Amino acid sequence: MDIREIVTVTNKFLVEEFEANPESISPEANMKSTLDLDSLDYIDMVVVIEDNFGFKVNPEDFQSIVTFQDFYNYVATRVQQKELV
User: Taking phi first (over 0 means left), then psi (-120 to 50 degrees means alpha), and beta for anything else, what does residue 25 get?
Assistant: First the structure.
């Protein structure tokens, strides 16, 4: 799975699961404020990521994610690691 596919899948579930405005999702936008995420939303996001991409998410990984690009890069790295196993 390449980065374009990851961005497409991610943006689709952000719109569907978190009712995000597709126009507000851009690589440099702040993910937390754009999606108005609270702690329960992060739990939901962990479940959605695991379902869509097939890897275990450590909740503390979100501490380093600020922008949507950070999020895409995180998912891409984890997917690549999973594919190497």
Answer: beta
Helices (H) and strands (E) in the chain, counts: 4, 0
Do 29 and 23 touch, CB atoms closer than 8 A? no
Q: Is 5 helix (H, G, I), strand (E, B) or coil?
A: helix
pTM of the model: 0.89
Could you give the CA distance from residue 19 to residue 11 in angstroms, rounded to a whole number?
Answer: 11
Give pLDDT tens digits for 31-61.
999 999 888 988 899 999 999 999 999 888 8
Is 67 a residue whose pLDDT tops 80? yes
> Has domain 3-84 been given CATH number 1.10.1200.10?
yes
Closest CA to 68 of 23, 22, 32: 32
Structure tokens at 28: 């440099």
Cβ–Cβ < 8 Å for 42, 62: yes
